[in-house]
Amino acid sequence: MPEKRKRPPTFQHHPANRAKKLKQTWVQNAKLKQKWRTEKRRIGKETEPEIEEDDMKQAVEVRRNAAPSPTPPPTKKTYLPPKTPVQQQERSSLRDRARDAYSRSSLHTYKSDPSGKRQRGGNTGRGQPDMKKRMSVLLETIKRDFS
Question: Which stretches are tagged as biased composition: Basic and acidic residues (predicted)?
Answer without folding.
Answer: 92-102
